[in-house]
Write a structure and sequence with these properties.
The complex is a heterotetramer, with 2 copies of chain A and 2 copies of chain B.
Chain A lengths: L1 E4 H15 L3 E5 L15 H5 L4 E3 L4 H13 L3 E5 L10 H7 L3 H4 L9 E6 L14 H5 L5 E3 L4 H13 L4 E6 L2 H4 L1 E4 L12 E4 L4 E5 L2 H15 L4 E5 L2 E3 L3 H11 L2 E8 L4 H12 L9 E5 L9 H7 L3 H13 L1
Parallel strand pairs in A: 2-3, 2-4, 4-5, 5-7, 6-7, 10-11, 10-13, 13-14
Antiparallel strand pairs in A: 1-8, 6-12, 9-11
Helix pairs in contact in A: 1-7, 3-4, 9-13, 10-11
Chain B lengths: L1 H4 L4 E2 L9 H4 L8 H26 L13 H9 L7 E3 L5 H6 L4 H8 L17 E2 L6 E4 L7 H15 L5 E6 L6 H12 L4 E7 L2 E2 L2 E2 H4 L16 E5 L3 H16 L5 E6 L18 H8 L3 H11 L5 H24 L23
Parallel strand pairs in B: 2-4, 2-5, 5-6, 6-10, 9-10
Antiparallel strand pairs in B: 1-9, 3-4, 7-8
Helix pairs in contact in B: 3-4, 3-12, 3-13, 4-10, 6-13, 7-8
The chains are: A alpha/beta, B alpha/beta.
Bound molecules: thiamine diphosphate (TPP) (2 copies) and magnesium ion (2 copies).
Chain lengths: ~325, ~350, ~325, ~350
């Protein structure tokens, strides 16, 4: 066991998978000598050479499409999109194409590619370096969508993603990269895609979250524990397919549910989860499912007080938890 | 006779002249009369099948058809310069002749046009000619209708081959319309930087549905775009199967010898509307069509074969009636096939047994 | 009053707006001499000339970006995306850029553009000519998203969209183009964006829908009326901003709600609406909010029996209505 | 002296030679010594401000900085050939000198770098240099960080001007990195088809963050890509403000006379890392940087002005100390300004009073 940051865990997973399997390679902007703008690929060029660590031109549609073609032809590319905000030129190849390869060829071709996507805010990234864009992908059948919150999960899930035979979009919250540390076992282990994780057990209410704000939820839960309110916190980890079983089981127990995400509310992932809860365990609910999410503005502003206004925080979440507990 | 025709091959500008096809001058071996005869057979079969499918659409028996009429010589010439067992083919929807030349049968194709059970590319989930052929038979891929998406994908396919050191050519097919898409630019640029074994094969029929080439670009030849990427570009008369054979053969040699991609532009004509859903009288003057029909590559090739003594009335009659017979039989068989039932509707969404798999 | 199809209503709105305001123009693939692949722009080239009816090269990113630039510079472009399935290359310019112009410039620049997008299935379009893609846009603050179901609404809403000072994505269901006929007043009228319409009043349950399947809902409601079940059918018409008032008012009355759309379920618009209902009128609900939606496959298949398996139908919807009524 | 420098202007290939800038030969009027002196002042001010901002970032007082050091001559030369009141400027993030040359003040720019109240482009919602200037003052737009998105938008802006018959030039700024994006291809193609009044101004500093030009393309000159669209392309030494002035002036004349777009490539160097977040020692050899520093356009211009007798020690000292004074004052004022409070946080999402408006 070693303590690691999220970015170190990502790097270790990538490195170990590239050692394990020669068809794994990585490509993206600045991932070579620069080691990636967040240093996720630091040292990989030296270790694996320019054939397996490919610095691409600035062209996201090509990154998506070339990774897809290589995957269709027997490789396991792990492509990096430099910032989630710049993924839009690639969605034609990912949402449009990669998701349909297996279905559209009756399984004659498959697309075992991973797209690593740093996303999210709270990093003074302004309107174009802060976006949460996971919901667009989690709507698309044929894709798998993963969003770990801890170093342990990041390493185990990235390994699973690389070994998965379907296209996986792997969302890494930028603010967690260096902020979140945790124990990570040496060597090989995987965490299954499609399984949520109860990060804190509790009996009074269920909070469902993922990514950076999961940590704020845990912080808020600790605050509420001191007030005598016992909060269960579920880390979704995978956004498609959703592990509704774990969520529903918890809500059956607590009878109150809240979903928290950084992305804006209307049409966000919280809506899907709230809808599933309201559909499946309606009779068990003692209160409406609450959604805590980003505000309805086009993106997160740059100036510090404006950014703070956008971001969820442990305090904001705690206040909402209290309200729900008191319902 | 044959070599005369190849004079219609024009080499485009290239910034990187050391990779120019002409410099290396390694064209494919000359075609024999027997080769050309076989190409003629394929063109005749393609035309016969194409006419049948169009007719079936007009009778309400096929939902949608994109015809290859006018493209046959370009398609048959290109395949002749390649190795169907070795190479990889990322086609687009107007590739009926390509499919036949690669050995896909008229019945298999008709099952696609009628969306019938047993359709070998997608199980009739997708449009005719879309999906993929089982790889142990032919490496043909075309699951998407989205124009130009196949180009970056084909580049990725070629990259994978290069990484593994496999000696294969990937051919990415596209039309003049597709040349305007950003993905075309990104794909060509990457392929040239990494000198990938790929041929960008453009069938320029001068229309993207109704939009004429003059509204698509302010240049005369798509092949000249190759210079923007430092790769060779070859413009060739796509009504001349031998010229196309030579151009694609030279490009294949560059690809196989590690010298990277080539853009080959075969200039052709679209004899019919864009698809069976289109009405080209809205935008295409009838005189235009008559003029190009006179250049139809099938009678032109027939004439060459007759002149060289390879073809006579009897053989020509035999070829044409055989094509008719094959197409008749395939039509009957395809019409008798059932539509696929939805029992495997939820299969192949995800890998079997993997999370999300509902099958 | 004249009876018209949806496509005729669209054409009339466009024509009248181009006559009314010289800064309105239209651009897209095949919209000139061809009149558009669905003939939405038939006759406009003759009437307004090639400067205001621009046939573009096959390049959706350019269509989105050029329309945006022209809008920023004082024009009111109405750009057509030939099929919704081909919109992905343009989302960088629409979701990424157009949505942020006003916010990112503090209103110094605005983007009054309309993107007309034929979408949806049931037209033997196969995996790439049938998609419902509206949810990706309706998640994005800064955009307005409209999806009429009738000729009357189509004409009035398209006029509002063209006169609107924000970017509007205008979704036209392809199957309604010729199938759905209705009375349309001659001349000028508008229908406000952001207002749902109760297309059928009823007291037993509320059904919320839009687009083609709205008509199937009405058909099913008629069937159920004969069985003594009184269904209220709400046509959302605008998907962003959602008219939650109209929906909630209805559910307060009926106490039972169902959302129906053609798009696949997980992460679809139905989730958002179900979540809002469960949040806001929880106490009034007598049953879980039901969602009826497309199946979790990557896209709609081509072959007729497979296509039918994907599409909602009046029968399928009626069965779900019965189940909800009996809850 | 001045005209000697312009020999570094090279005309790229063009398919459509009749629109070549040299053929038309209509360069802008020759620059006077006084003009060059004013350009020098702007370059000195830009460098002084740029150094200050970088330093403030290093001290933790500015969140993120993209430096224009090395690009000053190209930027000042281009603006000198244009009309700030008439023309439209779609800039990208490395345009500090452009902004100063267009009359935006150091204080206004510093408010952006410090994300302070009163920042005139976006109210500090966006990164420094991003947003838009009020149109009645200057038509500068740059709300996005997404590379190359400004190119189709700028084409749309030029299209609108052409439709209304307004006589203006739109300038779309971009880097070598942006040239690889599909949107760049689509934008240039459309502009050339419609002969729009636009200049595509590429500042080629040979790096896209860490990716060197050799990994970005397999050609020597971006300007040669112009031929792929049938428009003129001009490659020019971006360390030579006069050469840039002449190239952009010729392009502006083509635009204004209805002859359509031009691609101007100013070859420059990036003296500092990509941004303050970057560490260029990871990928850039130090020798490389030293070599290019010797070509720094600011001392080079100083030398020219001294040789022509336009500048002497006293005037140079005055220019530099004035720049320092202006920057010091602006720094103080900017640091004293407050951060914007979120009271207008929900404004300008939608038009006031329109559905969805929450303000
Ligand atoms: C990205 C995209 N945009 C639009 C379409 C609709 N469409 C289908 S084929 C076509 C024209 C293609 O022209 P070209 O590439 O020249 O091929 P051709 O049909 O002439 O052989 C268009 C616009 C599409 N399939 N994909
Ligand atoms: C579409 C997109 N992809 C990636 C990025 C991240 N990024 C910002 S600047 C940059 C390099 C741009 O290089 P270039 O165009 O040469 O401009 P320069 O910074 O060298 O002036 C990259 C990759 C981005 N902003 N947008
Ligand atoms: Mg064509
Ligand atoms: Mg650069």
């Amino acid at each position: 066991m070693a303590e690691m940051t999220v970015i170190e865990a990502v790097r270790e997973a990538l490195r170990e998978e590239m050692v394990r399997d020669p068809v794994v390679f990585t490509m993206g902007e600045d991932i070579g000598a620069r080691g990636g703008v967040f240093l996720a690929t630091e040292g990989l060029l030296d270790q694996f050479g320019p054939e397996r660590v490919i610095d691409t031109p600035l062209a996201e549609a090509a990154i998506g499409g070339i990774a897809l073609g290589a995957a269709v032809n027997g490789m396991r590319p792990v492509a990096e999109i430099e910032f989630g905000d710049f993924i839009w030129p690639a969605v034609n190849q990912i949402i449009g194409e990669a998701a349909r390869v297996r279905y559209g060829t009756q399984g004659r071709r498959t697309a075992p590619l991973v797209l690593r996507v740093p996303y999210g805010g709270g990093v003074r990234g302004g309107l174009f370096h802060s976006q949460s864009i996971e919901v667009a992908f989690s709507h698309q059948p044929g894709l798998k969508v993963v969003a770990p919150a801890t170093p342990y999960d990041a390493k185990g899930l990235l390994k699973s993603a690389i070994r998965d035979d379907d296209p996986v979009i792997f969302f890494e919250h930028k603010r967690t990269y260096r902020l979140v540390k945790g124990d990570v076992p040496e060597g090989d282990y995987t965490i299954p895609i499609g399984k949520a994780d109860v990060k804190r057990t509790g009996s009074d209410l269920t909070v469902v979250s993922y990514g950076l704000v999961l940590h704020y939820c845990l912080e808020a839960a600790a605050t509420l524990a001191a007030e005598g309110i016992d909060v269960e916190v579920i880390d979704l980890r995978t956004l498609r397919p959703l592990d509704t079983d774990t969520v529903l089981e918890s809500v059956r127990k607590t009878s109150k549910a809240m979903v928290v995400h950084e992305d804006t509310k209307a049409g966000g992932i919280g809506g899907e989860i709230a809808a599933v809860i309201a559909e499946e365990v309606f009779e068990d609910l003692d209160a409406p499912v609450k959604r805590v999410a980003g505000p309805e503005v086009p993106a997160m502003p740059f100036s510090p007080l404006l950014e703070a206004e956008f971001m969820p925080s442990a305090e904001k979440i705690a206040a909402e938890m209290r309200e729900l507990a008191a319902y | 006779m044959l070599s005369e025709q190849s004079s219609s091959t024009k080499l485009g500008h290239s910034d990187n002249e050391s990779t120019g096809a002409h410099k290396h001058g390694v064209g494919p071996p000359p075609l024999t009369d027997a080769d050309l005869l076989e190409m003629y057979r394929t063109m005749v079969l393609s035309r016969t099948l194409d006419q049948r499918i169009w007719q079936m659409n007009r009778q309400g028996r096929a939902a949608i058809v994109a015809s290859a009429q006018g493209h046959e010589a370009a398609q048959v010439g290109a395949i002749r310069a390649l190795d169907p067992e070795r190479d990889r083919f990322y086609i687009y929807y107007r590739e009926l002749t390509t499919m036949l030349a690669l050995g896909i049968t008229p019945l298999e194709l008709l099952l696609g046009f009628l969306a019938k059970e047993g359709e070998p590319l997608s199980g009739a989930r997708q449009f005719p000619l879309h999906g993929a052929i089982d790889r142990d038979r032919r490496d043909i891929v075309s699951f998407s209708n989205v124009v130009a998406t196949q180009l970056p994908q084909a580049v990725g396919v070629a990259l994978a081959d290069k990484m593994r050191g496999e000696q294969r050519v990937t051919v990415a097919y596209f039309g003049d319309g597709a040349s305007s898409m950003g993905e075309t630019h990104e794909a060509m640029n990457f392929a040239s930087i990494h000198r990938l074994p790929i041929i960008f094969f453009c069938e320029n029929n001068k229309y993207a549905i109704s939009v004429p080439i003059s509204q698509q670009m302010n240049i005369e030849s798509i092949a000249t775009r190759a210079s923007a990427y430092g790769m060779p570009g070859i413009e060739v008369n796509g009504f001349d199967p031998v010229a196309v054979y030579e151009a694609v053969g030279a490009a294949a040699n560059l690809a196989l010898s590690g010298q990277g991609p080539t853009l080959v532009e075969a200039v052709v004509e679209r004899f019919l509307p864009h698809t069976s859903d289109d009405d080209d009288t809205r935008y295409r003057p009838p005189e235009d069509l008559e003029g190009i029909r006179d250049l139809d590559p099938i009678p032109a090739t027939e004439k060459i074969l007759r002149a060289s003594g390879t073809l006579d009335d009897a053989l020509d009659e035999e070829i044409k009636s055989l094509a008719q017979k094959i197409v008749n039989q395939a039509t009957e068989d395809a019409e008798n096939a059932p539509f696929p039932e939805p029992q495997d509707f939820y299969e192949q969404v995800y890998a079997p047994g993997s999370p999300g798999d509902q099958s």
